Task: inverse folding
């Protein structure tokens, strides 16, 4: 007998590593969602920067239907046309020569880190194994990626973690100079820290990292899982800075809601990911690749990318207007449609308290740590939905202030 699932079913049947909101969305269109009771919400969360074209965008739905009636999955014993088309498109539109396809950002970063170490062994020897990343960074939930990520809470309690990992301070080049050396195989960095608080890197910082990597024969790895696929107003954020990494990782917006990840690199570096060194069962499957290809081809156009920059300005204007009335934010920052509003001293640590109030007002939003309200909506969210969503956010903030 068919039954309608409830929120209580989550607590009964699912492991308790998540704590979802009480509503259950059942339908989406564009930047709006409806729950089991038919209540409407505007989506500023975007599936945590995943739903790059909103919900059920016709371009992605058509790609899904067309490929879904042809071929879904083969395994990597064979290749397939959509995977080859996606890889070629990514190469033609970026610095890369080669692409490794997988199913998530964590997988893409795991591959990048393994490749960086393997490349160092192939060219310089096993002693060159140190990886430098940054405090408050986030690179995934595998044991390797949470260890490289700069938030110890995610790796505590899981036993010995991989060694040879050092953490510097984001946007502080001197802190990197104190750690880097000829035993460094890679520096991994987000062009804009996402989970760490929506903090863009300075151009000087990334330029300095590139120079340090060149000096010490280390690879520069850009984690663009959250900033990539149009999120910052360029196809990838490295283009905003004019700095070319050796390895780049992509996921989230890449699949527009379908689980797809990719690692991009040069011919020289890719040679170290030789036959049998790494793999992904679902990576490069035909269905996911067809959807990602449709997403990238739609996103990487002047209309969409310029629209992201225009929408960034609209979000900022609305947030600044709200802040002039209520004084809840200390700083509004970000690039493109990855935007963070840091809470003011009077509301320190209260960003999380906005989320349930926003849900009650019909708005979905995010946080980036306890002190930053985060927004990562569809790259093509209509301006009318921005205005209405901000009106709902203001009502939530009015309630927060009234109960302070």
Result:
């Amino acid at each position: 007998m068919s039954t309608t699932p409830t929120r209580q079913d989550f607590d009964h049947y699912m492991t308790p590593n998540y704590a979802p909101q009480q509503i259950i969305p059942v339908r989406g269109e564009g930047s709006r969602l409806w729950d089991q009771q038919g209540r409407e919400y505007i989506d500023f969360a975007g599936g945590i920067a995943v739903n790059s074209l909103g919900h059920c965008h016709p371009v992605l739905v058509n790609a899904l239907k067309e490929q879904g009636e042809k071929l879904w999955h083969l395994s990597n014993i064979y290749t397939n046309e959509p995977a080859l088309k996606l890889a070629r498109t990514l190469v033609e539109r970026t610095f890369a020569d080669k692409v490794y396809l997988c199913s998530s950002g964590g997988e893409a970063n795991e591959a990048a880190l393994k490749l960086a170490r393997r490349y160092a062994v192939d060219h310089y020897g096993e002693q060159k194994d140190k990886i430098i990343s940054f405090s408050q960074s986030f690179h995934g939930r595998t044991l390797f990626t949470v260890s490289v990520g700069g938030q110890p809470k995610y790796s505590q309690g899981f036993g010995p973690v991989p060694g040879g990992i050092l953490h510097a301070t984001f946007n502080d080049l001197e802190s990197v100079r104190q750690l880097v050396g000829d035993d460094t195989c890679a520096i991994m960095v987000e062009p804009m820290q996402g989970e760490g608080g929506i903090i863009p890197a300075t151009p000087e910082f990334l330029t300095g990292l590139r120079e340090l990597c060149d000096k010490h024969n280390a690879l520069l790895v850009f984690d663009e899982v959250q900033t990539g696929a149009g999120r910052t107003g360029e196809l990838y954020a490295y283009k905003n800075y004019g700095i070319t990494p050796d390895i780049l990782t992509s996921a989230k917006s890449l699949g527009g809601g379908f689980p797809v990840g990719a690692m991009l690199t040069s011919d020289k570096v890719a040679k170290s990911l030789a036959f049998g060194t790494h793999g992904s069962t679902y990576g490069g499957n035909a269905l996911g690749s067809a959807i990602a290809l449709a997403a990238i081809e739609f996103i990487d156009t002047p209309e969409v990318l310029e629209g992201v920059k225009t929408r960034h300005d609209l979000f900022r204007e609305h947030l600044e207007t709200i802040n002039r009335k209520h004084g809840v934010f200390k700083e509004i920052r970000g690039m493109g449609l990855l935007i963070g509003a840091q809470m003011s001293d009077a509301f320190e640590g209260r960003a999380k308290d906005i989320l349930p109030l926003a849900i009650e007002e019909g708005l979905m939003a995010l946080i980036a740590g306890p002190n930053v309200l985060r927004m990562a909506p569809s790259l093509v969210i209509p301006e009318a939905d921005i205005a209405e969503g901000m009106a709902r956010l203001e009502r939530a903030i009015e309630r927060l202030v009234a109960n302070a």
